[in-house]
Amino acid sequence: MSKLGIFVNRQTLSSSEQITAVIKCRDVAESMGHTVEFIFPVDMKKIPKLDALFIRANTDPMNATYVAARMAQMYGIPVIDDPGSIRICADKINMYMHLMKNKVSMPQTQFLKKKELDEAQAARLFLELGTPLVLKEPSTSFSARVEKVGSVEELLKVARRFFKLSDWIVVQEYIESRFDWRVGVIGGQLLYACRYIIPSETFKIQASVNGHVVYCDVESVPADQVPSDVIDLGLKAGNAMGKGLYGVDIKESNGKLYVIEVNDNPSLEGGEDAHYPDMFGKIISYLMTGDAGGYAESLSQKAMDYGDIESGLGLGSGAMCSPSAPAENEIYSYKIDFSER
């Protein structure tokens, strides 16, 4: 019997969706024969006694999640997210350079240094990359410090604000779309796929509009309804980061696909798993054995042994094999309500 630690913090438990997700993960792990313990930042000393660690808190090289990941790595304990993935994905310049190195399709991108900022340089960027442009501060997450600018004056204003936090900023061509594909990747394999429907009031999956925060809708899409080139690009982008757990955001415009970014510690609580009931099982299997496909094989074996997957796993009627789950060929739409956050 192996012991899984799920690293959480206050923010992890700040909404019912997040709490439900980590509880579901615990239940799946226990159904697979593992013991599970929730690890809070004050419980770091327990990490060396674990067999695997699953981090479900915002990752950043400057906070406790990175300390937890490094500690696990030092003791030879499998961990998601691993320290390397955190370092790459938490710095958008590092992330985009990995995509470029691996020839992954992405928007035209340039990196602007603070000392290069002037009107002539701003005008040149519009000339080369088009109008409007998207500016990103490298440490941004959840669409914070990502802004669209349409003039030299706007670019200079936003860039000066971002340069208070970083010596570099990312400047990209703007790709118009009403949704992003999100491709979940684990160990180089497809974990899930969904669409993030962008609110009409903004171009981002999350934004403040007239003092109110608006969020995207999530549509889980069965794998056989996802274009194969979307899946292939998502896997290629994930492999450019490493072999951990990633959420790859992809836009489609004029018949071409672009990777917008790759996220470590991707969202798993928004309904992404509606057509992928084995999502948590694959993650746990990968942590414990290094094989994301091992969970599907174990399910198949249990079905043969017991004639009923649900009874074989000891799951209740509301668990992963619920008869009310959407049909495989349907697209499941899930509206996230963050009004209580």
3D architecture notes:
Helix content is 32%, strand content 25%. With 341 residues, the chain is α+β, with helices and mostly antiparallel strands. It has 3 domains: 114 residues, Rossmann fold (3-Layer(aba) Sandwich), CATH 3.40.50; 66 residues, ATP-grasp fold, A domain (Dna Ligase, domain 1, 2-Layer Sandwich), CATH 3.30.1490.20; 106 residues, ATP-grasp fold, B domain (D-amino Acid Aminotransferase, Chain A, domain 1). Strands 15-14-9-10-13-16 form a 6-stranded antiparallel sheet. It has a 4-stranded parallel sheet with strand order 2-1-3-4, with helices on both faces. Helix 5 packs across helix 6. The longest helix is centred in the N-terminal third of the chain and has 16 residues.
Keywords:
alpha+beta, D-amino Acid Aminotransferase, Chain A, domain 1, 341 residues, four-stranded parallel β-sheet, Rossmann fold, Dna Ligase, domain 1
Share of residues in strands: 15-25%
Shape: globular
The N- and C-terminal alpha carbons lie at a distance of: 37 Å
> Class of the largest domain, according to the CATH hierarchy?
Alpha Beta
CATH fold call of the largest domain? Rossmann fold
Individual helix count: 10
How many structural domains are formed by the residues?
A: 3
Helix content: 25-40%
Q: What's the architecture of the largest domain in CATH terms?
A: 3-Layer(aba) Sandwich
**Biggest sheet, in brief?**
6 strands, antiparallel
Order of helices and strands: EHEEHEHHEHEEHEEEEEEHEEHHHE
Largest sheet strand order: 15-14-9-10-13-16
Gyration radius from CA atoms, angstroms: 21 Å
